[in-house]
Design goal:
By secondary structure, this protein is of the alpha/beta class. The chain folds into four domains: 2-62 and 250-474, Rossmann fold (3-Layer(aba) Sandwich); 75-244, P-loop containing nucleotide triphosphate hydrolases (Rossmann fold), CATH 3.40.50; 481-559, no CATH class; 568-722, Sec63 N-terminal domain-like fold. It is 46% helix and 10% strand. It has 32 helices and 18 strands. The protein has an eight-stranded mixed beta sheet, sandwiched between helices. The longest helix has 19 residues, at 676-694. It is globular, with a radius of gyration of 27 Å.
């Protein structure tokens, strides 16, 4: 996805609602920022000499490491622990303020009393980090992990896992009539309730969770925390107390880099507005940019400025994977001259990746070793990203170049966060950053216990609307809206244990319904949440009718035998996979071929199939075409019913087939034109779909056995840890 960013960024901005701000910045009619006549003045050769405005002297004097002090809990931490003893609790506090300490202490209280706890997070990387952290705190024997690809010590009293696994356990508990085997649930990164794709999972957990189980929600960024808490109190008939902390543990200083290399205060000291010197600069005759047209900013020069004023380590937020990788090539003149640190870093790199064949000779290792900089994005293997995160957290790097996605949930602290853009790619187009996203990014600046002050540095350029950035600094976190949506997996699983009337009652208790009923500007809320959220009942009944038409639900609104086993397919396309199982379309006698066909279901990207058609194995093409032909009737029925149907492409299936047959990783990645991280993610999602099919051993024993073998074929290094 990120690979498309460079090519379409300019086009997206051209049609963006922020076009005027990008082109004119100040918003004055007919008077662009960079030219009073509306025509950009040609850039002269850029010469950057490190300098700082006198107004920053006092700020820079405060840079340093705070003195070590005994830990003393903050007021909000103690208040949260007090609240969770008698009620649910929603904690909102800035990144790094100490929310994890609250979780640990609350779990300790439950654990000490012989109870069990479930800690859910949105990201596997964050879940893995919490496993390590909690194992050290509570003992490895007492902590287990449940994610799509890891199931270890599942009977432990303390479980860390992803939200999807917790939601699935709630489905199973409702179906069997048994209570969820935990006495306490923590939902970290609770603002994911408003996530476009995954927010539905969070909302389902909150709706289905038994009242007897206390709920602790942790987030840095919920603008309408009291709305969420009031809904939970009404939903669960159990008071939910809001505990808020607004003061950052490390103060943040916004600064601006003049194209000549001089650092300026970004904001006025007295008011939350643009500093006078920056304002005059933007209103001047020349374009305010550090980069020539079509070129990246001089990263090496920016690093020199940051190093001069002791502002490293820095986290650079760039718009694309390509820019992150290109930034490394612009740092050749920035060697790490600290020989002791150089030796320590190289020893640590060897410890982290020296025994991992697929990353030991990584093409970016030289920059990591010699320049102390790295590139971090979703196109890279998990092992390489983990190495970067470890080195940065241990203070062995000067800079990491990352896309904005790194701000969500990954522990990547720095002294300075550097911004080049005021927008981000949402998978379809570039849209302006909102306050929540911006606060997550700036939350990485300033390390508690390591910094007295953190910095957010704005770099002027074509895609930075400085006025929008100024507004974001003083804006409260964005309000969270309901993203609940009806799909076939949800409908099947709810019908396992509920009548249609009971399901509709559950939907009436959704956050979407609550907001509509309890917000004054109801029309505005309805428009924001969209028709699908407002008409949940109609959507559910539409899905129910379709399931009746296709034989998964009987005329009495009960699941048929097919509907019961199909409910266990908690995947993106359960009906199509279920139909393929019913019709015996999968090549279950060949596990490698089976994995490849499932990869076609998992793939979400449009693919140009013309280039590689001649190289595809005939048995693979035959298998994919057989599945497509067998599912044609159901696909047409779904399309006419208004349900989305993905195209099954052979290209991703061919890559997974080659890997399942023992192919060499690098060769397959190059031939498939994927990046390492994309191919790794395709394999992991394919394995996750196969696990759901593996669970159907009572109904489809041969196919389930083939799914198990297929998982073993594809889940090997570097997809799995070495």
């Amino acid at each position: 996805m990120e690979n498309r960013i460079c090519d379409i960024h300019a086009q997206c901005v051209k049609h963006s609602p922020m076009k005027k701000q990008y082109m004119h910045g100040s918003g004055r009619k007919g008077k662009p920022n960079f030219s009073r006549r509306g025509t950009p003045v040609p850039l002269k050769k850029i010469i950057i000499r490190p300098g700082a405005d006198a107004n920053l002297k006092k700020v820079f004097a405060s840079i340093g490491v705070p003195a070590k002090q005994p830990f003393t809990p903050d007021r909000f931490q103690l208040e949260a622990l007090e609240a969770i003893e008698v009620s649910d609790c929603l904690v909102t506090a800035p990144t790094g303020a100490g929310k994890t300490w609250i979780a640990q202490e609350a779990i300790h209280s439950i654990f000490k009393g012989g109870g069990r706890a479930w800690y859910a997070s949105p990201l596997k990387a964050l879940t893995n980090a919490k496993l390590t952290e909690f194992s050290l705190h509570f003992g490895a024997a007492n902590v287990g992990i449940l994610t799509g690809d890891r199931k270890e010590n599942a009977d432990a009293p303390i479980i860390v896992g992803t939200t999807e696994i917790l939601r699935n356990q709630l489905y199973d508990a409702m179906h069997t009539g048994h209570s969820l085997g935990t006495d306490f649930v923590i939902l970290d990164e609770a603002h994911y309730l408003g996530d476009e794709e995954r927010g539905v999972v969070w909302e389902e957990i909150m709706i289905y969770l038994p009242r007897r189980i206390p709920l602790l929600l942790l987030s840095a960024t919920i603008g309408n925390a009291r709305h969420v808490a009031a809904w939970l109190s009404e939903l669960r008939n159990r008071h939910c107390r809001v505990v808020e902390e607004f003061v950052r543990p490390v103060p943040l200083s916004p600064i601006f880099l003049h194209p000549n290399g001089t650092l300026l205060p970004l904001l006025d000291a007295e008011k939350p507005k643009l500093h006078e010197k920056v304002s005059r600069l933007i209103k001047g005759k020349r374009r305010v940019e550090l980069a020539r047209p079509g070129k990246m900013a001089p990263i090496d020069d920016i690093l020199r400025v940051l190093k001069k004023f002791n502002l490293l380590p820095a986290l650079f937020f760039l718009k694309s994977r390509a820019d992150c990788d290109q930034a490394l090539k612009l740092c050749r003149q920035h060697p790490d001259e600290n020989t002791e640190r150089f030796a320590a870093r190289n020893q640590r790199i060897e410890e982290l990746v020296g025994k991992i064949p697929h990353v030991v000779h990584h093409k970016q290792r030289w920059a990591l070793e010699h320049i102390a900089v790295g590139s971090h994005h979703s196109g890279q293997l998990p092992a390489w990203k983990l190495a970067l995160e470890t080195l940065m957290s241990e203070g062995l790097l000067d800079a990491v170049f990352a896309t904005s996605t790194v701000a969500a949930g990954v522990n990547f602290p720095a002294r300075t966060a550097v911004f080049f853009n005021s927008d981000r790619f949402n998978g379809v187009e570039f849209i302006p950053l909102d306050a929540t996203q911006f606060h997550q990014m700036t939350g990485r600046a300033g390390r508690r216990g390591m910094d007295r002050i953190g910095f957010a540095l704005a770099i002027p350029g074509k895609y930075l609307d400085i006025h929008h950035v100024v507004r974001l600094f003083s804006s409260p976190s964005a309000q969270v809206a309901s993203k609940i949506q009806i799909n076939f997996s949800m409908t099947l699983n709810l019908l396992l244990s509920h009548t249609p009337h009971q399901v509709q009652d559950l939907l009436r208790r959704s956050f979407a319904t609550y907001l509509i009923a309890n917000t004054r500007k109801k029309g505005v809320v309805r428009r924001q949440m969209g028709d699908a959220q407002y008409r949940l009942k109609d959507k559910f009944l539409h899905h129910l009718d379709f399931l009746k038409e296709t034989g998964f639900v009987d005329p009495d609104d009960r699941l048929t035998e097919d509907g019961k086993w199909a409910s266990q397919l908690r995947i993106d396309q359960p009906l199509l996979v279920a139909e393929a199982l019913r019709l015996g379309l999968f090549p279950s006698t060949d596990p490698g071929l089976f994995a490849a066909v499932i990869a076609a279901f998992v793939n979400e990207k449009e693919t140009d199939e013309s280039r590689d058609r001649r190289t595809w194995p005939k048995d693979l093409v035959k298998s994919v075409l057989r599945v497509k032909k067998g599912l044609m009737a159901l696909s047409r029925h779904m399309t006419f019913g208004g349900f989305p149907v993905r195209t099954l492409y052979v290209h991703p299936a061919a890559a997974v087939y080659a890997w399942a047959r023992g192919g060499e990783w690098t060769e397959i990645v190059q031939r498939s034109r994927m990046q390492d991280g994309d191919f790794s993610m395709l394999i992991m999602r394919t394995a996750d779909n196969l696990r759901h099919i593996r669970s159907l051993s009572d109904t489809f024993p041969d196919t389930a056995a083939a799914a198990r073998q297929a998982i073993e074929l594809i889940m090997r290094p570097p997809v799995l840890p070495e």
